[in-house]
């Protein structure tokens, strides 16, 4: 449950809970605004906890319509010696919560870092084999995606924004593979009926990606000298379809 300065939802109102792992204020603020805007949520329909700033505490799933996990610079596949105390704490907290989410088949959408977090919880292989550079990429849906409530009626292939160092190389048999890209075979998957992860970013538009490029230019995702060119490419790309997935998630599970 959030700390006392963030009171629990009032009776009958169940907002969505956004969990952030972004220690960088500009990225964290933009992530919150992007989820509100692209998820078509009112301010009172979204609460946020920045896990780099404070412990998660106990989350009562009954208090929430669903949980959204944003991306960030953490990688679950990092060697344990390379993880600082905050990352180790955050991963332990998310591991416990994700196991409960999967067991309850509770509405969950993990964006980018969600592949590593959810994948680790269900026994997927997570490593650095299929990293992708920051910028636009082409996503191709699987046959299963055309029957999924969040992905149905989207084009068979569409542009999205991505950029990650780790990814899933293998999913367990009970996971439903939903999307791939030329350089990353697992771009999205579902567990059960209500638990999702995407490697690409359904919570990003071009301007938000440009903010991330500014914030993370020295984090090893790209040559810093390429930042302006990457931003120009992002603005020239029509990645209109990924936010549909986020909006469908909030519409489907709002209660």
TrEMBL record:
Domain Glutamine amidotransferase stretches: 61-205
Record carries keyword ATP-binding: no
Annotated Gene Ontology cellular component terms: cytosol
Superkingdom in the source lineage: Bacteria
Signal peptide: none
SUPFAM superfamilies in the record: Class I glutamine amidotransferase-like (SSF52317)
Entries under PROSITE patterns matching the protein: GATASE_TYPE_1
Record key words, sorted: Glutamine amidotransferase
PANTHER family named in the record: GLUTAMINE AMIDOTRANSFERASE YLR126C-RELATED (PTHR42695:SF5)
UniProt-listed NCBIfam families: PRK07567.1
Protein name: Glutamine amidotransferase
